[in-house]
Q: What sequence folds into this?
């Protein structure tokens, strides 16, 4: 690990000011990716701005028909939350699938989506539910927020404050996990709103989380596991690597979508 300067601001404004002044600084949330990269000398920030002391960034609260979850809320807290289990049980299930107990006890919602790992779970939940990401400067829809592999619409010095999840009529998440890393080889989040609108988000398949227009069209017409399973995903839309070929991943998208719909239907 290379040497760096450590800062622990007491409020969001101070954190944003620090990051604005430091050209090569990084915000530290749960540190589950950043610290590991620094240990391997794959990342070399000059400064770390630890957000852990900013109380306003943590917590879960209801806001009308939505759930607002603070950026520094731990995965374990989302998984165990009675409010999340009641309003969006699929989101609690997703949080409980992330990594292992140690990761869930430290990792955060904001850190996960800001990093936007192409095999992470939370981006699928945010995009699949059509959530809104509230930052220190503005509000971004999920479709606006995720822009590519490890890339988001966040500007330098812009910090995630919270994510507002609209409560769906029903939703489900199914994941085929890499047995070593617990990242999603394929993960599919499916939701249906009260007006019948369907969203399907896929993680682990491509160069970042994405929506499947084919699955959304099929499920809008017939929200059943068989309708999801009948959709044949093109391998050209998927990545291949040492863990799985593009063809295998394409097959798994249909399988996980079928399981996610079955979970949504209970």
A:
């Amino acid at each position: 690990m290379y040497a760096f300067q450590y800062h622990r601001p007491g409020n969001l404004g101070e954190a944003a000011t620090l990051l604005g002044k430091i050209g090569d600084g990084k915000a530290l949330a749960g540190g589950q990716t950043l610290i590991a990269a620094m240990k391997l000398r794959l990342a070399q920030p000059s400064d770390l701005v630890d957000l852990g002391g900013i109380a306003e960034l943590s917590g879960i609260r209801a806001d009308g028909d939505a759930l607002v979850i603070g950026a520094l809320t731990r995965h374990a807290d989302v998984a165990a939350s009675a409010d999340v289990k009641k309003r969006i049980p699929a989101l609690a299930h997703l949080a409980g699938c992330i990594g292992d107990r140690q990761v869930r006890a430290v990792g955060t919602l904001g850190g996960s989506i800001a990093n936007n790992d192409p095999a992470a779970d939370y981006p699928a939940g945010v995009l699949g539910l059509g959530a809104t990401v509230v930052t220190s400067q503005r509000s971004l829809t999920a479709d606006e927020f995720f822009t590519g592999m490890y890339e988001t619409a966040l500007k330098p010095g812009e910090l995630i404050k919270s994510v507002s999840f609209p409560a769906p009529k029903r939703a489900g998440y199914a994941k085929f996990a890499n047995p070593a890393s617990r990242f999603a080889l394929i993960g599919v989040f499916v939701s249906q709103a009260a007006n019948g609108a369907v969203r399907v988000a896929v993680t682990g398949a491509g160069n970042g989380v994405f929506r499947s227009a084919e699955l959304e069209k099929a499920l809008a017409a017939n929200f059943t596991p068989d309708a999801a399973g009948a959709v044949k995903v093109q391998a050209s839309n998927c990545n291949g690597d040492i863990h799985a070929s593009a063809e295998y991943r394409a097959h798994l998208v249909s399988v996980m979508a079928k399981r996610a719909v079955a979970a949504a239907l209970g």
